[in-house]
Amino acid sequence: MSETSIELMPQLPVLSSQPDSEKVLQPPALFQLPLTSQDPQQLQQQSQLQSELQQQELSETNAEQQAESVCVKQKRLLLLLLGLSFSIAVLGLIFYIHHIFYAERRTHMPPVTPCLSQACQRAAARLSTATDPFTQTCDHFLSKCGSDRLLLTNLGRHRGQGIPGHPQNLKEKSQRPKGEKKVRGLNEERLQSRKTLLLEYLKEILETKENSYSSAVQKTMDFYRSCLDTSSIESAGEEPFLTLIQKLGGWPVSGIWNKTDFNSTLALLMRDYATFPFFNLNVGKDLNESTSGTTKRRYIQIDQPDLMIPIEWNSKIEKSGAKAETLRPFLTLCQKYLTLLGSPETTSRIHVYMFISLSSELAVAASPLQYRLLKGQLHQRMSIEDLQRQAPAIDWLGCLQAVFHPLSLSKDDHVVLHNLPYIVHMSQIINKWQNKHELSNSGPLHTYMLLNLLHTLMPAMDSRFSETTKAFSEALGYDNEDSPRWKHCMLSTERGFDSVLTHLLQIVTAHREAEKMIEDLFLVFKSKLHHLSVTEQNYYQLITEKVNSLVPRVWTPNRTSGENELDLLFSQVNISSKNFFSNYIQLLSLWQKRRSKLLISPSEPVDVLSLTPFLLGNEVLFPMGMFIPPLFHPTYPKAYNYGAAGFLLTKDIFHLLLPEIPSSSNTVKTVAECVGDHYLRTTEKAGRSGASTLSAAQQQELWVQYSALEVALNTYHRIRHSEDTSLLGLSHTHLFLTSFSQVSCDSDPYQEFMPLDPSFLIAVICATSNLCPPMQCSIKDDHISPQPC
Predict the structure, then answer these.
(1) Coil, helix or strand for 14?
(2) How many Cβ atoms from other residues are within 10 Å of residue 69's Cβ?
(3) Do residues 299 and 415 touch, judged by C-beta distance below 8 A?
(4) Own/partner pairs for 258-261, CB < 8 Å, 24+ apart?
């Protein structure tokens, strides 16, 4: 019993040096049995056996402990790696949620409310086909409004470097030499000028199907529609003009001429047909007249004519003359006109030669505007009596009384001349041709006047005449811009029915919303002045006082013409829906009557197509045409209105009120160079090269457009309400800058000085703003954080 017990549970000695891991192998005292008495040999054998067992167990225990230690270390390492990976994943997830979720919340949250008005639906459709600046690479912003014509490598080309030819050359043909790229570039259809947008808006009004309009409005619509009726115009051919020639006494070209009086025919052409063959007549103020204490009166202005023959200015001899290379094509042109009018070539040739000869002699004294300004030939005031003595060939009092009837004029009334040497020379040439007895039956002066009348009436004649003119200009190496027929008809309609169009535009203009926008923008613009670094404190004080004294408002007539008054005004006008030639003649008469009214009108004339604000007394007046779709509508989101119309208005304010700021402020140069540096770094990233030199005019325009965008954006965020609607689900800032990008290349007198695509300013502003959505084109440098300009 005892032996069996000992074999089953041997007693192990306790070693003080045993590690803790080994101590656990000892059985607890409760299981140890007392030893019984045995013989020495047996005890020795038991001791030896116990020792061997102990050694064996120790070996096994050490092996197990080593294996367990390695396993534990591997498990700990694995757990450490798993824990580290999990921590990194959690941190990455937290960063992603913070960066994406909160960024989305910052730019797109709270969810925008869509604008569902009919005007907004049209604006959204238009915007959906346009380019989103935030999805474009930087290459999109490195061109000049879609064209590579004016990169920074082409800086230094300025307006007014010499006068190419003569201002009367190919008058108002909208032509340019072949090979010259359009400044507007490849996106001409998308980047329409404000004037085209206004004409489109008026076109929609005139093409409405409603029949509730007044008589005057209906006549305006009928005139416009008769202009669009090209089939009736083509069917009429040359007959309407030939009938008019007979009414005027015939002409020597056909062999039937009543030898009408020269001055009587001239007065008739100017009064009823707005045709000025020998000199131009206008109405305006004398800029040399003092404005102290009195309002400037208007005078009849007499200027050199727009000669039909192409001429050029010779600066060496300071004289003009017919372009030698154009004489033969011009001869062919005139002969073609007469052939279309039914005149045989054999009989018309002599009349064409005389016409060219007379035109060339008149051209000698014509001179460019810049030359006349330099010589002090502009705004020379004299009495009609004095003018009669210096240029006796013209019956000045009789002609002017006929043109400005029913106004009463006397020989003591003053007129303003803009090229007296030409007027004197013109009188001498007329006397010379009148005294050529061998030409008495050829009537060269009469033929000259009727060919000028043909040129005036050509827009109302069939396409053979316009195609002949187009072929002539192409023969001289000029490209013709073929404007759509509707645009030509809208411009014609405005010439005679401007008061009706003003009435229609005033009805649809949202005056309250427009004036609110003007006031908001003007307030932030004034605060912008405080940030200007001005070198001349007196200039800064003068500008500040001037701006603070101004009151901005929408420009409308002081006294609005109601429908009844318009009906009375146009009661003598008879418009035919199928006779555009007759309608056009009445248009010319209306145009001349409008010019006559300017002579006695106490207020400024309202130009319905005006798109530029101007100063009048202590007011800044903004024309109604600046507040029309797709730039502005009272139901549009404010972000859209302020991004498009708001930017354009602010840009005009800067140009109007701070024209001389570059010479008195360091801010202009600093801002321009800052934007230019961003642009250059971006071009380098895109693998392009450019020069950093900016002219003073380019610095100013860059500063103006950047500042105008800042003012418009700050104004919007100042007045914005959370309930502002949106289009296409865009965030408010996204919509603001997208609408800005659609009008940033808008045509204006200063566009030529903008050295880069204005939409690049979006990248500049968004580089330091946390309000912009993510942008594909980033101008941020890896080592340098962009600073606000």
Answers:
(1) coil
(2) 11
(3) yes
(4) 259/443, 260/446
The string of pLDDT tens digits covering residues 632-651 is 999 999 999 999 999 999 99
Task: Tell me the average pLDDT across 334-354.
Answer: 93
- Check pLDDT > 60 for residue 324: yes
Token code pair at residue 689:
């090269």
Of the spans 9-23, 105-119, 159-173, 181-195, which averages the highest pLDDT?
Answer: 105-119
Count of CA atoms in the C-beta half-sphere (13 A) of 271: 16
Sequence-distant (6+) residues with CB within 8 A of 528 are 707, 710, 711
Residue 291 has pLDDT above 90, yes or no: no
Bridge pairing between strands 280-285 and 725-726: unpaired
- Give pLDDT tens digits for 550-560: 999 999 876 66
- Percent with pLDDT over 70 in the chain: 77
Instruction: Please state, in angstroms and rounded to a whole number, the distance separating the CA atoms of residues 358 and 356.
Output: 6
Task: Please state, in angstroms and rounded to a whole number, the distance separating the CA atoms of residues 755 and 151.
Answer: 7
The 10s digit of each residue's pLDDT in 348-376 is 999 999 999 999 999 999 999 999 999 99
Alpha-carbon gap, residue 373 to 692, rounded angstroms:
35
Integer angstrom CA distances of residue 119 from 309, 418, 476, 506: 48, 48, 46, 18
Tokens representing residue 155 in the block? 């800086």
Task: Please give the pLDDT value at position 141.
Answer: 87
Pairwise pLDDT comparison (593 vs 524), residue with the higher score: 524
Residue among 460, 244, 223, 458 at smallest CA distance from 337: 458
Per-residue pLDDT band at 289 (split at 50, 70, 90): confident
Q: How distant, in Å, are the alpha carbons of 269, 278, 385, 402 from that of 300?
A: 17, 16, 14, 13
Give CA angle at 310 (307, 314), nearest 5°: 100
Edge-first strand listing for the sheet containing 280-285: 280-285, 298-303, 414-417, 380-383
Q: Strands 414-417, 551-555: parallel, antiparallel or unpaired by DSSP? A: unpaired
At 41-82, the pLDDT tens digits run 554 555 554 555 455 554 555 555 555 555 556 666 666 666
Q: How many residues are given for the chain?
A: 789
Query: Cis (ω within 30 of 0) for the bond into 459?
Result: no
> What are the residues whose beta carbons fall under 8 Å from the beta carbon of 780, sequence distance 6 or more?
767, 786
Does residue 46 or residue 703 have the better pLDDT?
A: 703
Query: The tokens 């061997």 sit on which residue?
Result: 52
pTM: predicted TM-score of the whole model, two decimal places? 0.77
What would the DSSP string read from start to end of 321-336? EE-HHHHHHHHHHHHH
With CA atoms as reference, report the closest residue to 167 among 289, 54, 313. 313
pLDDT band at residue 474, thresholds of 50, 70 and 90?
Answer: confident
Distance between CA atoms of residues 571 and 555, nearest Å:
27
Please return the burial class of 492, using the count of CB atoms within 10 Å of its CB with bins 0-12, 13-18 and 19+: buried
Q: H or E segment at 283?
A: strand 280-285
Question: What's the DSSP call for residue 459?
Answer: G
CA angle 133, 136, 142 (to 5 degrees): 90
Tell me the two tokens of residue 153: 């490598």
Read off φ and ψ for residue 787, nearest 5 degrees. -105, 145
Domains, the chain, ordered by start: 2-106 (no CATH), 238-460 (1.10.1380.10), 509-556+608-789 (3.40.390.10)
Q: Where are the alpha helices (DSSP H) in 312-390?
A: 324-340, 345-363, 369-374, 384-390
Helix, strand, coil percentages in the chain from 3-state DSSP, rounded to 5: 55, 5, 35
Query: Can you tell me which residue has the tokens 């206008």?
Result: 282
Specify whether the CB–CB gap between 767 and 786 falls below 8 A.
yes
Measure the CA–CA gap between 605 and 623, rounded to whole angstroms. Answer: 12
3-class DSSP state of 299: strand
Determine phi and psi for 476, rounding to 5 degrees: -90, 0
Which of 382, 384, 386, 375 lies closest to 408 in space, CA to CA?
Answer: 384
Q: Average pLDDT, stretch 412-439?
A: 94
